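Rotation project, supervised by the postdoc (A.L.). Task for the rotation student: set up a whole-complex structure prediction and record inputs and outputs verbatim in this book. Inputs entered:
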Amino acid sequence: MTADVELDGLTVRFGSFTAVADANLRIRGGEFFSFLGPSGCGKTTILRTISGFIDPTQGAVRIGGQDMRGIGANKRPTALIFQSLALFPMMSVADNIGYGLRVRGVGKSVRQKKVDELLHLVALGDQGAKKVDELSGGQRQRVAIARALAVEPQVLLLDEPLSALDLKLRQHMRNELRAIQKRVGITFIYITHDQGEALTMSDRIAVMNRGRIEQVGDGRDVYNAPRTAFVASFVGENNAIVGFVTDVAEGMAVIEGKLGRFRATNPLGLKKGALATLFVRPEALRFGAADNSLAAITREIAYEGNLTHVGLRTAEDTHLTVLLSAGEAAPEMDAPASVGFDAARAIILPPRQDD
Amino acid sequence: MQAALGHPFVIALPFVVGVLFWLVALRERRRGLITGQTFFQRNGTAVGLFLIAAVAFWAVFMIVLPQLFMVEMSFRPKLPPSAIGGPRDLYTLQNYHYFLFGSPTSSAEWNFIHIKAFFLTILASILVTIGNFLLCYPLAFYMAQVANGARLRFLLLLLITPYWVNEILRAFAFRVIFSSGGLINKLLLAAGLLHEPIDFLGMDVGMYAGLSYAYLLLMVFPLYNAIENLPKAQIEAARDLGAPWWHIHVFIVMPFAKPGIASGCTLVFMLTSGALAAPLVLGGPRSLWFTPIVYDRFYQAFNWPQGSAYAFILLLTCIAFVLAVMRFGKLSLGEITR
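Outputs recorded:
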């Protein structure tokens, strides 16, 4: 069984510090939903509030339509996978997985059967008798998942569980987590500061900054159509050009700054005279393009096989990054170059509120 | 056997053992079982010699030899000083015999008074230990997992400062509190809860309270240390999986803190069973604690050999008991030092 999770005006304060400010969100049942943001943005607080370890200062958490106020962490239909995994070191793998069932008074034989099923689900079939510290990092990860799934939660909460793993294992576990979620079909709420994880696994992502949810959408929305300057610069790489809006027409706008005059999309309908930032992705910047061009000097060329990063600096000391794919020719080092971009592939947004 | 030969043997024993260990180490080094720098190569000759001399002095003269002399003495008869070393100074089991069967002139089959006191002491020490654990566990848990910064330091201060008061003074203070005209009785009488004072001291309430309090810290700190190492996330994980609070304590915290529990309980049990001040000062007229009996062997009966025999019976029984309990709890000696 799976359930919706609803945040209704959720605010959490610790003393004078506001960790989460007025979060409104509806996570659909069976969805793989991620909260993405830098550390300290409030994403872990949201997760702990949903699981019942923190009480909301204002607003409510509803799971399956039921208000969770006054319902303790041990009574909620959620299970949390901790960043540290928090496996019980004095118990075997099987006892770890069976702990939630034992607490519920499930008989030994039924428990055994369920534990075997779960061991099978996470591909640890013959490891049940082992001690937790005899397992590898990836195996421990799976034990934590199985232990959480054993109590048949309607919502599984994951607090950066992959952050302790090395890169290769992390990428492997991404696929595995996604596959497990498909198989069990319950709501997964995933916390991460790693945009790669969020983009590859999630159905939808909430990007958070300073306690606020800045944007909610699927990976493509968040990457291609950021709604705030923070989202534009936090998700993926972006080049930022600052200026004032001098002209607006038909969803487009022109900004002028010390780097020059540039045209780009204006999705939020900024008015003439507004201070604004233009964002253009490194892969949208092209050498020698006639539109929206600016002059710079090549300062850095990083060859990565399939891609090449080119770092540029303008006369006004603004850094720009251009991403070239394998076939494209890289410019010469320390030579003047002209780069430009297609107005449809750049976006003009209000400047960041927090800096 | 002539007891006069005993002392040279006792004095030689630790040195002989030391030399034996050194020879074993030498042999293992020659066979390549030990490699790397020798002790002297690592520390230099001067420092090495000093370390060996200092540790040997401390271990042999302060710890091993006095105990060995007591063991040796427990096998000697009680003799006037002039007869010591004489023909009557023979090794004997009579002191141990006395503990079990009493004086040769007594008509009773067993030395019931001493045996009863002995087992009551062991039993009472077990109860005091359990009581101490029940008292200290919540406190230690609170300190280790709940209290933060300033409150923790305040609690520690509250725990430690009363122990600046020495043991005898503390015991007499308990006497003042628990006596018939003492504070507790006065309060209860004034509150109208009692019509005549309760004889707390006669009922040994004072003694058990004093005994429990005397070694409280030795229970709190090992527990605190062990529980402090438990990651909070484990408690939260258990809670998240639906465990009620008692289940978390019994199946998560206590198994994790087992080494600390064992070390605290061992310390408290050993020290309680050997405590002297509280039973002596706070024991009621009918109380029978074993340590005052041992004390009396030394200073009332002036029978040092018998006193040492009694003290050793207590020590060995306690060690055997502790080892048995640890075996039962599947704990090794190494673990309780963690």
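Student's summary: Residues 252 and 346 of chain A are 10 Å apart (CA to CA).
Supervisor addendum: Residues 167-184 of chain A form the longest helix (18 residues).
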